[in-house]
Design brief:
Layout (H helix, E strand, L loop, with lengths): L20 H33 L3 H26 L8
Length: about 90
Amino acid sequence: MSDARPDLSVERNSRPGARTRADGLWSAVALRWLLLGILMMTAGKVLVTALAAREKVRYIVWLGGTAILVNIVANLALIPYMDFGSSPRS
């Protein structure tokens, strides 16, 4: 597999409000990240249920704290990198 990024450049001669190829590619990137989040939430729910059945509440608290830290770090790292707010339609 190549590590090449898709061409997300916006065409300069496009009409205002017109959809470009870049709009669809950014949507696909965002959808992949959302899918990863859905899978992690599903795994977390199964793990929390298993730990609760074994009365391991302490581990559930640590799992929640770790999830919050990972969420904050990932948001700070990825949101400026992906820059979804710079759409030409904004």
